[in-house]
Amino acid sequence: MQLFEQIIQTVDSYVWGIPLIVLILGVGIYLTVRLVFLPIRKLGRAFKYMFEKEEGAGEVSSFGALCTALSATIGTGNIVGVATAICAGGPGALFWMWLAAFFGMATKYAEGLLAVKYRKVYPDGHTLGGPFYYIENGLGKRWKFLAVIFAVLGMCVGLFGIGTFSQVNSITGAVNNVFVNAPSVTLFGREYSIAVIIGGLIVTAAVALVLLGGVKRIAKVSEMVVPFMVILYVLICLIILGANVTAIPQAFADIVVGAFNPKAVAGGIAGSMLVAMQQGIARGIFSNEAGLGSAPIAAAAAKTKEPVRQGLVSMTGTFLDTLIVCTMTGLAIVITGAWDPALGLEGVDVTIAAFSSGLPGVLGTVGPVLLMVCLIFFAFTTILGWNFYGERCLEYIVGRKKVAIY
Q1: What integer pLDDT is reported at residue 267 of this predicted model?
Q2: How many Å apart are CA 358 and CA 243, to the nearest integer?
Q3: Rounded CA gap, 185 and 198, in Å?
Q4: Cα angle vertex 101, ends 5, 111, to 5°?
Q5: 371 falls in which pLDDT band (50, 70, 90)?
Q6: Per-residue confidence at 402, pLDDT binned at 50, 70, 90?
Q7: Which end of the chain is more exposed for a tag (fewer CB within 10 A), N or C?
Q8: For residues 236 and 232, what is the distance between their CA atoms, to the nearest angstrom?
Q9: Which residues make Cβ contacts (< 8 Å) with residue 85, sequence separation at least 6?
Q10: Among candidates 261, 272, 224, which has minimal Cα distance to 381?
């Protein structure tokens, strides 16, 4: 097992190393400049389009497609990933996360536009699109091998990677933390809490009921759950900010100073500027998925006749995910000082500590429970979104064969 973990860590260090980060961020900067800072100029119109209905080929509304993409995008990374980045790179990591999101909006715009422009629409109204089609049809048939590679890897990630196993583990872990005194049973030579088993079964049944209804049911559920969970989480974070309002100016100062001189904020115990930059940019890209090619799969299902319109709607996902949700998490952690290495906390424990100490009065005692509820919602919707992505990748490879897909 240790050897396997070492292999994974080695691969991860290359995948999320400096070259890839520079490449993805560089593309975002290039597109932002070539589009004459379109994400700033057209952000208001993008939000307007989000709620306007448009007739055209597709299976779900633009808002439904956006919520489907956000269901996969807004996940445990917004809670755990932000905490990990700040602990490793200091408060300045949040600044680089913002930078990645700013330039990532242009990338997400381009992805959404290409997804609609090169999607395949079947006679029965079914649509299929994403990087595999705009690679194959946009670059030409000789590049189809890249489309196939993307589809295979996307299927594996959706069915076996961050889209399933890690999210189920997050949910069951959250349930176990809430029901710590639940009795245990032995299964397959290991002890499991009954609460964890019941929670896993409920998640499995709920996911199956949604996924078997196809993209329309996924979009419908996402339209209800995603806005609710985002509003709930942001509201809790706003209460923390309101209760610690006097600490907000210093928090922003620590973020800006820490981006370029982490040791000035952490008293000499923080890493270098390069660490803050790498952690912030990597976590930002991982969180909002700009340039990863997943969100365009959902965008391709939108009912629209205009690729540019869906591109604008798609870029709002990066704004909401990183510049809103991740910022809320980051500010709560920085303001409360939960990231301090001296505390010895890691991952979700950092955010739990921020909620416990940041929420006023009795809310502080139930802070961990509130966070666990948000974590469960985030992980559940991520399962829905990534399983949808995995299914569409499989469909591209094998065609519309229900035996293979279902």
Answers
A1: 57
A2: 7
A3: 12
A4: 90
A5: confident
A6: low
A7: N
A8: 6
A9: 93, 94, 97, 279, 280, 282, 283
A10: 224
Report d(CA 116, CA 306) in Å as an integer: 8
Residues 176-179: contacts with CB within 8 Å, 24+ apart?
177/368, 177/372, 178/369, 178/372
The H or E element that residue 192 is part of is: strand 190-193
User: Residue 306 has what DSSP assignment?
Assistant: -
pLDDT of residue 56: 78
The tokens for 225 are: 């759950």
User: Percent of the chain, pLDDT > 70?
Assistant: 95
Q: Are 139 and 148 in contact (CB under 8 A)?
A: no
CB 222 within 8 A of CB 385: yes
Q: Where are the alpha helices (DSSP H) in 244-366?
A: 248-260, 262-266, 273-288, 295-299, 307-318, 327-336, 348-358, 362-365
DSSP state of 119: -
300-305: average pLDDT: 90
What sign does the dihedral 282-283-285-289 (CA atoms) show?
positive
1 pLDDT band, cuts 50/70/90, is low
Map tokens 């705009």 to a residue. 134
Residue 187 reports pLDDT greater than 80: no
Lowest mean pLDDT among 51-65, 141-155, 233-247, 290-304: 51-65
* Confidence at residue 266, expressed as pLDDT on a 0 to 100 scale: 61
Nearest alpha-carbon partner for 49 in 320, 311, 225, 323: 311
Angle between helices 92-117 and 307-318 (to 10 degrees): 160
- What is d(CA 275, CA 267) in angstroms, rounded to the nearest whole number? 16
- Indicate the pTM of the whole model: 0.90
Q: Could you give the C-alpha distances from 321 to 24, 284, 316, 347, 386, in angstroms and in order?
A: 18, 9, 8, 19, 16
Task: Please report how many Cα atoms fall inside a 13 Å half-sphere around the Cα of residue 96, on the Cβ side.
Answer: 30
Which residue reads 């973020």 in tokens?
255
Q: Concatenated DSSP letters for 213-235?
A: THHHHHHHHHHHHHHHHHHHHHH
> How far apart are alpha carbons 311 and 2 in whole angstroms?
43
